[in-house]
Amino acid sequence: MGLRRTRVKICGITRIDDALAAAAAGADAIGLVFYAASPRSIGIDQAAAICAALPPFVSAVGLFVDADAEAVQSVLRQVPLSALQFHGDEAPPFCAQFRRPYLKALRMRDDLDLTAAAQQFSRASALLLDTYRAGVAGGTGESFDWERVPSAMAPRIVLAGGLKPGNVEQAIIQVRPYAVDVSGGVESAPGIKDAAMVQSFIAAVRRADQIGVQ
């Protein structure tokens, strides 16, 4: 069995320098938040500038929370996003209409049936699992019980929720997700990434990838 490689997305990018630092550290994707209530929300012009500065093969993912279709289309006309990420109560037909790969975020409520949700969003490229907190769409900085993720589902999972350099290695060893997603865990302030923390986070991911490989 060859070395597995957990993909890494650094979400909530608001500055070109942070995007370039993430790419230099080995990130596979960055996340741009198009949700006005978020402290990491970004405007169209800055998002387009960040995308223009990205090196090849680093994906830009746009994050939306219960936006209307025209708002999503408006962003897509102006920002070259590789994929979309939906963090609200969007239904599968809504998510699938934009002709882009999409991730559906699921907040891990106690009563969430993950298997049923995976079937409901069968056309999603992946399911992003985030911590549930009432009234908060994401970015809680808190982790959830990783034991709740069925091992058979791991290849479709992007693990989020409270990840940081100090716990991501254990999270990957336990869950073996396709990818991990971090925002607040590598920040010096909301929307301001700490390059050294990003490097430490990705180094921890790579250590996890080397553990348990036969």
Could you please describe the fold and organization of this structure?
- Helix 4 links the parallel strand 4 (83-86) and strand 5 (102-107).
- Helix 1 (16-25) packs parallel to helix 7 and helix 6 runs parallel beside helix 7.
- The protein has an eight-stranded parallel beta barrel, surrounded by four helices. It has a two-stranded antiparallel ribbon with strand order 9-10.
- It is built from seven helices and ten strands.
- The relative contact order is 0.17.
- The longest helix has 16 residues, at 195-210.
- It is globular and about 40 Å long.
- The chain has a single domain (7-210), classed as Aldolase class I (TIM Barrel), CATH 3.20.20.
- It is an alpha/beta fold and 214 residues long.
Structure summary:
This protein has helices spanning 16-25, 44-53, 69-78, 92-96, 114-120, 168-175, 195-210, and strands at residues 7-10, 29-33, 59-64, 83-86, 102-107, 126-130, 157-159, 179-182, 187-189, 192-193.
